[in-house]
User: What shape does this take?
Amino acid sequence: MLLADSNALGNPQLKTYLAASRDHNIALSDLTLVEMRKEHAITNSRMSLRIASQFPSQVFVLKRAHEILELNMSASADVNALFDYVAGVELNQDMLDLSTVPVPERLKVRMAALEPEAANVVAELGKQMHDLEEALVDITKEFKPDQVKQLRTGRDVTEDTRQTLFRLLKETTARFFIDNQQPLNRKSISLTEARGMFAFRYSLCMMIYYILWVQNGRQVGRPEHLRVNDVIDMQLATVGTYFNGVLSTDKLVWNTSHAVRAVLRQFGAFVGEDWVLPESLAAH
Assistant: This one.
């Protein structure tokens, strides 16, 4: 099972992957669906799902982030809790309707309702990322150059780095709960508990993504629409740690996912078995 972002959905290699075996599946996050529905929902959904719609039984939908914040995924058997099977059935019907001419009235009504909802979600994500970016600027200053290298590569992470990272991640994880209007129902949390939680892994993804971003010479203070892309990409990379990886044509997303998976393993966390992407998908 691989997580597919919006760019990968339109890549011809996706069809090759899905057609190669019925055991080859993809999962879509709710934010990937939001992205295609935020404007011109019918047209954009039809284009984005044109390949996936040929393999409806191999396409799954994930629950929304606020529904999985405190789920503790410690083994492959726990992963089923991430799927929204009702949303999966709805998506299958949408894909069928999108291929129908003329477009069924049911789909017109549904997309008319989903479009403003998606636009509101996107607007809120931009605000969340602005606040988180400011926190990451301060937090990442606490890492020494050798520790930044350890996190960037995911190799030879020392105990000191792990302890610093865990302390800082608890702070950003708490912020993520607040942003999603969910109480963190624990006064304290152990590493054993935290390492399987979505919120903890998302904080780790954002921290490493920011480190990689600055290492590549890029600047903070990005336009809002790009900050929204960051949130969507990192939520994909986060959930991808429970599966075999992320299908993305964005090199920074792929590098972040690779580093995060390696760091999580150093924490002794459950991570899905790695799947090596075809060069055509892994290339920027």
The chain has 14 helices and four strands. The two ends are 22 Å apart (CA to CA). Confidence is low (pLDDT under 50) at residues 280-284.
